[in-house]
Amino acid sequence: MDYNWITLKDGRKMAYKEYGNANGKPLILVHGTPFSKLMWRDVPGVLDNEMFRIIAVDRPGYGHSDYNINGYLDNFPFDILELMDYLGIDKVSIAGVSGGGPSTLMCALKIPNKLKNVALISSVGPFVDEAIGDMNVNKKLYKTARMAPWIIYIQTHFLTKMIKKDPVKFITLGKKKLRGPDLEALEKDNFYLKLAEAYSDGCRQETSIKHNAMSHDIMHTANWKIPLKDINKTVHVFWGGKDRSIGDQCQYMAQILPNAITHFYPDEGHFLVYHKMSDVFKVL
């Protein structure tokens, strides 16, 4: 077994994988959509990090963590508390990337006193006009989620099956909606082949049309309910100015969060985490 897991109070399994220095400062990393804990292996500075004890978790329904039918997002902070208690950790820093941003924000909202530092990296945010910017076809996805959610449930069910069967094919199809730095990042040294295993691991579970973690992520972004103005914890927001996957969602959230510290990179795209993680480590 190349990962660890705990049984939560409600009987679900929560999986995680540790990287870095076992005696370092505890840091929880929250993967994007539809990745898993394995995505962090390919982020520079994670595997051999000497400063942090890195705990990469699988969000509910991804990787080896069971789906939570009773409040997927709302209860994530309490899953983290159980994990911290199991590992003997009193306070921890946390960083979430892309689709893992909302889960990270929920922790900042509900368990701020257990967190040292918080960072969002290329995070999705509210789907409102002010946050769309130069968003790619994802804006059509979110509009569909609002008007005909059943289409999203069916679509993500079959996408999950495709990723499990042939993640490279899925990434290749996804490349068609990319341009600029993100397309360059995928094609450089065939980097997309490294991502394929993390995609496959993220979608490894047999999911029903109703209980699909990817569907949940899309539906939450389309119908955002996290009260950003109520998050008083300092949040470091990392965003690439050429990120067409999320448009201006990070920029929009930074304007609403009471204590946001921005780290913006005009020439970076959605794969910012693979180029600027050293900057993230500095603030954590």
Give an overview in words:
The protein is α/β, with parallel strands linked by helices. It has 11 helices and 8 strands. Strand 5 (92-97), helix 2 (101-110) and strand 6 form a beta-alpha-beta unit. Helix 6 (167-174) crosses helix 8. It is globular. The model has no long low-confidence stretch (mean pLDDT 92).
Structural class: alpha/beta
Q: Give the SSE string.
A: EEEEHEHEHHHHHHHEHEH
Beta-strand percent range: 15-25%
User: Order of strands across the widest beta sheet?
Assistant: 1-2-4-3-5-6-7-8
- Give a count of the beta strands, DSSP E runs of length 2 or more: 8
Please describe the structure with a list of short key phrases separated by commas or semicolons:
284 residues, alpha/beta, 8-stranded mixed beta sheet, 11 helices, 38% helix, globular
Short description:
The chain has helices at residues 76-87, 101-110, 129-132, 138-147, 149-165, 167-174, 181-187, 191-202, 213-222, 249-256, 273-283; strands at residues 4-7, 13-20, 25-30, 52-57, 92-97, 115-121, 235-240, 260-265. It is α/β, with parallel strands linked by helices.
Write the layout of secondary structure elements.
Elements: E1 4-7, E2 13-20, E3 25-30, E4 52-57, H1 76-87, E5 92-97, H2 101-110, E6 115-121, H3 129-132, H4 138-147, H5 149-165, H6 167-174, H7 181-187, H8 191-202, H9 213-222, E7 235-240, H10 249-256, E8 260-265, H11 273-283
Parallel strand pairs: 3-4, 3-5, 5-6, 6-7, 7-8
Antiparallel strand pairs: 1-2, 2-4
Helix pairs in contact: 1-2, 4-5, 4-9, 5-6, 5-9, 6-8
